[in-house]
Amino acid sequence: MIIGESTSLFFRFGAALAIGVLVGLQREYASDAPTKELPAGVRTFGLLGLVGCAAALLSDLLKSAWPFVGIVATTGIFFAISYYMDATKGKPGLTTRVSVILTLLAGGLAYWPQTLTLAVAVAVAMTVLLSIKVPLHRFVRHLTHEDVFAVLKLAVITAIVLPILPNRVFGPPPFDIFNPFKLWLFVVFISGISFVGYILIKVAGPNKGIGLTGLLGGLASSTAVTLSLTTRSHEHPNLARPFALAIILAWTVMYLRVLAAVAILNVALIEHLRIPILASVATGLAYCGYLFARQRTEKHRHEIPFDNPFELGLAIKFGLLFAIVLLFSRVAQVYFGDIGVYLSSFLSGMADVDAISFSMAKLSRAAGGLDLSIAARAIVIAATANTVVKGGIVLISGVPQLKRAVLPGFILMLAVGAGLAFVM
Q1: How far is the C-alpha of 274 from the C-alpha of 276, rounded, in Å?
Q2: Full-prediction pTM beyond 0.90?
Q3: Last residue of a domain, one of 98, 131, 164
Q4: With contact defined as beta carbons under 8 Å apart, do 84 and 136 qualify?
Q5: What average pLDDT score do residues 99-114 get?
Q6: What is the rounded distance in angstroms from the CA atom of residue 373 to the CA atom of residue 381?
Q7: Do residue 197 and residue 80 come from a single domain?
Q8: 3-class DSSP state for residue 177?
Q9: Is the peptide bond before 174 cis (omega within 30 degrees of 0)?
Q10: Among 336, 368, 374, which Cα is nearest to 176's?
């Protein structure tokens, strides 16, 4: 027993040392001038991890928090003096000194078995945050007032509105699908997906290439990508093939986005959904590979503008749309059977594939609810209808070169996805 306890104690101190060394390596690597004296380097950070763990051990042995508090306070005072001295020389950097305190605390967390995993997670998160200084600063410089307000709005609907909504259903069938909490949770979910896609575009930059625009734009709105590039095809008909690549890639990402969302809401549905969805994805990627091989080798740098996709009014409209689609689907299920579900999916998918996908995931998750295979087919039908609409945009509004480039991939994706949905 004593040997086991000693081994565990050595392991925890080893974890604390590893945490400090990890952060220290990043700090020295990130230094602009490796030869200059840093406030703390890899050795100092390694020692700080050990000091934090030793302080936690001492507090545990003495059954008092004061030893740990005293050591943390002493370290804080020491580095505060160091900061003051550097600030008087015109070098008021705080990042390394804040990292020192956090490393000390993480070392203390590593002492306790129940918080060891948290200590490692804190260290990894801190190291990642320290390592992405350049892209993070670049991202902040590209933020607008609308972006900041969008973050605040998303926080409001998530942290303030969601918790106060009742988490129960209202009304008899088919009105038993109205659960305010869950309906609003879906609003938060889809808003978050769109916002993350927009953030990725802001971080990478939409001018990194037309193909990348299609990849990232598919996370935010594949319809927006289709509309934007179809319009631009009139200005740049010679870029029809790269535009087609981005459009098909955005459609492919849309299928993956639907699959990921359904997996979170109803993982049992994935077993019935994965074959047609992944087949469509594979078809789209294969055709993208063909287009990429055929297009010219020079880089095309045309910026495609994307507005912030999150607006509170739009989120509320989506919530209402989702509730209507959910009710329509439930009524179709109760009174018209499978055909009614498929019809509602097709009509709803023409406007928005996310709402009907969430509806099917919810209806098939409830006990005695919609059959999983029917729900899967309904989602594929909705995705197919949505792709039909986007393909129609290209075929009606695009230049002839874009139509010819998109049409084969459009037909293949529809045929594979819809065909497998009804023969699997």
Answers
A1: 6
A2: no
A3: 131
A4: no
A5: 90
A6: 12
A7: no
A8: coil
A9: yes
A10: 368
